[in-house]
Amino acid sequence: MRNFLFSQTLSRLAAEARVTVLSVVDGEDFVRHFSASPERVLRLEESLPPSWVFYFRALVENAHDRWQWSAVARNHWELRDLRAVERRRRLQRWVVKASSRFLAFWPGLRALTAIEEELAYRLRPNRTFDELFAQLRPDLVFNGSQIHGLAAEMPLRVARRMGIPTAVFLFSWDNLTSQSRIMVSYDSYLVWTEAIRRELLELYPRVEPARVFATGTPQFDYHFQPERVLPRQELCHRIGLDPARPYVLYTTGIDNHFFHEHLHIRTVARILGRLELPSRPQLVVRTYAKGTSPEMHALAREGLPDVIFPPVLWDPEWQTPRYEDIDLYTSLLRHAALGINAASTVSLELLIFDKPVVNLRYDPPGTDLPWCLGYERHILFDHFRPLAESGATMVAGSDDDLERMIHRGLTRPEADSEARRRFLAGFFGDVLDGRSGIRAAETLLSLARGSTRGA
User: Fold this and answer.
1) pLDDT given at position 314
2) Which of 70, 50, 38 is nearest to 177 (CA)?
3) Which of 183, 199, 203, 180 shows the shortest CA–CA distance to 79?
4) Do 373 and 391 have their domain in common?
5) 302 neighbors 265 (Cβ within 8 angstroms)
6) Which DSSP string do the residues of 74-105 spell out, in sequence order?
7) Short-list 175, 183, 165, CA closest to 200
8) What is the pTM of this model?
9) 455 found inside a domain
10) Which domain holds residue 234?
């Protein structure tokens, strides 16, 4: 929604093409904030094969992890072992692991993926999309995210079988290493950067290089639109901050990946309360909309001095961002004095605004997490490690580190500015310019016009 429906992408597409939107989210409140009016908006219902097909899919995912063996894949392997507690589950896990090791080579993976795709297509429960595409006769079917739900897979599988060109957007910088195998075959791929493009071609050698396009990600375009930034006075009034005092922005992770994170927030609050600075900083905690622990909710209700939990304007039913959240989020980043997160994409966004960033490489105080559930693993994951090692962010390994880095960020915000600029330039190249949504639209229009089916 934020990447393609609220951004400039939809308006650019709608100006030159017939656009039909298939979405699991519907309703007038959803549609009225689109950047342009599509020809129609249709409810996207899940169309899933029999449940036993998912056991085969799990085998594919495990074999892919074993073949790739990235830091995240190794962590997935450990977590699956950890969850196999019951005897029956342990036996199943043993069978899957043994099979995965045997099949973890490129021809085996290719065969497994082809079988899964054939099973999912042939055993589809209805012909809804066959009928819809026969009626619409689209020149291109585009999936805005390859990871956010199985509902989007079936229409793409059907389109491919009908000979309709397909395309997909790799939603985030970690998707190739952390989100297992891309199950659906696509004709074309849109990715964030040239580095991700090269990684895709390395992992999927049958993908044609000419069909992979580095467009940037439209979710960052909003940070280049001055009209999105609320005046500091207005932002502070809206969420209950003192505009005369600086604030630190702590963005939490999903609760089932970052355990006991409320304890880190208590530590940050204590540190900010005892720092000797000309003006006492405030702490703004933006919780993760898709997973916030009961302990975090309790902490928010506790009302700690100078700690604000602003509303996260996402739809609670669909766990998708509302249009109103765009301005609030961009403004929180823009006016923050310092950002803290465990290991988040938010780090990149703070760098865009040239803000000091602290990442957390250690577990919350008083906890005893196994390494495979701890915080350090996130810093070492394949996508995040280059950022952590670049000097663009500060990486805290203890409470003492955290206090020293917070003080440094608040008193010398310019210290790492050159490293921040250098990392962004090296990572994004020329696609971090506020025009990613336009580039994505122009790429999709070009792909649609290149269809042999005509306009």
Assistant:
1) 81
2) 70
3) 180
4) yes
5) no
6) HHHHHHHHHH--SHHHHHHHHHHHHHHHHH-S
7) 175
8) 0.93
9) no
10) 230-428
Task: Note the pLDDT of residue 179.
Answer: 81
Using CA atoms in the order 404, 409, 415, 418, what is the torsion angle rounded to 10 degrees?
120
Mean pLDDT on 272-288: 95
Q: Is the pLDDT of residue 451 over 80?
A: no
CA distance 10 to 289: 25
Asked whether residue 306 falls in the same domain as residue 181, the answer is no
Percent composition of the chain: helix, strand, coil (DSSP 3-state, to 5) = 50, 10, 40
> Judging by beta carbons within 10 Å of its beta carbon (0-12, 13-18, 19+), is residue 128 exposed, middle or buried?
middle
Distance in angstroms (rounded) separating the CA atoms of residues 436 and 59? 36
Distances from the Cα of 361 to the Cα of 151, 155, 336, 345, 351, angstroms: 35, 41, 22, 15, 19
Whether residue 168 sits in one domain with residue 261: no
- Asked if 70 and 203 sit in the same domain, the reply is no
C-beta separation of 413 from 356 below 8 A: yes
Residues 207 and 301 in one domain: no
| Sign of the alpha-carbon torsion through 271, 277, 280, 283 | negative
CA atoms within 13 A on the CB side of 436: 30
Q: What are 235's two structure tokens?
A: 């932002």
**SS3 of 449, please?**
helix
As given in the structure block, the two tokens for residue 429 are 């190249």
Q: Tokens at residue 382, please?
A: 């394949």
Model pLDDT for residues 162-192, shown as the tens digit of each residue: 999 999 999 999 988 888 889 899 999 999 9
Instruction: Count structural domains, the chain.
Output: 3
The greatest distance separating any two alpha carbons of the chain, rounded to the nearest whole angstrom, comes to 68
Task: Tell me if 361 sits within 8 A of 325, measured CB to CB.
Answer: no
Residue 171 lies in a domain: yes
pLDDT above 50: residue 227: yes
**pLDDT (tens digit per residue) in 114-149:** 998 999 899 998 999 999 999 999 999 999 988 767
Same domain, 189 and 74: no
